[in-house]
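Data card: per-record layout.
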Amino acid sequence: MKAAIATVVFLLSCLFAFGQTSSSSTYLIRKDDVLRIEVYGEQQASDIVTVGSDGYVSAPFAGMVKAEGRTTDELVADLTQLYMKNLRLRDPKVSVTFDHYAPLRAWAGGAVGKPGEFDFRPGDTIVNLIHFAGDPTDLGNQHRAILYHKGMAEGIPIDLFNILRRGDLTQNYPLQDGDRLEIPIDTTNQVQVVGYVQRPGILPYREPMTLADAIAEAGGEIQGKSRLSKIVIMRQSQGSPGRIVQIKPDFVAYEHGDASQNVLLQPKDFIFVPATNTPDLSAITNAVSSIFYIDSVLRTGFFGLRLP
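The structure for this 308-residue chain is written out next.
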């Protein structure tokens, strides 16, 4: 699934790359941008200049000219008038292009492969930022991403699922310097496998998902240590908040052909794979201490025993 998302992100990134050649005509010049000013036939009037901290550039034979917050077309219009006046040119052919841009940075975090801050180019979009950040992980709620512009407390809801899976580009906004994109981790649409498996941890829930699916995604049993006949699944009781139901499938019997032991999982199921017949109470306590099950486990007990 992640590979498919990565492919879509790559294709969309390529699509928007074609439109970036014209972005300088609408991009507003910023401090520290480096501009190339050229006047056709007037080499002495051509130069490479940096936008200063005051937002101005020092252009040959034109003096200090306001550049920050303006487009290159607007700057060309000003320079043309100044060269007509100062150099007495009848119809100067002036061009202003970017030698290079001041760094633009945006941040992506939450359920992405590589959270962090990234440089981007004018014209880059949310799709580009997602690609820089290693694409969304399966644990993210792509429907509820939030985009924050610099200095704004109110976020903009972004449905990344529609962008990446359905090709709806209406929310694929151009990035602004200082943007922050957050993809929340979906704590309601996951299962957790702990105990004696190769890779214990949180797994994304995908309907339909069975116990066999979860054990396989967790790397399978640890030979000689896992006791698959004594797995316990802890599940919140429907309609009874705080009450935990314990399901005790015999996974060994499933491996010998009893399909009824391959329990169909539900979101937020907690799966414990023990090593022996005797519950490892410290391991269980550590495993459940960070999830909402702990209060109920402390009240109702686990494997018929109270946790210390």
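Known properties of this structure: The chain is about 25% helix and 25% strand. Helices lie at 2-17, 72-86, 126-132, 160-166, 211-217, 251-255, 281-288, 294-300.

See the next section for split statistics.
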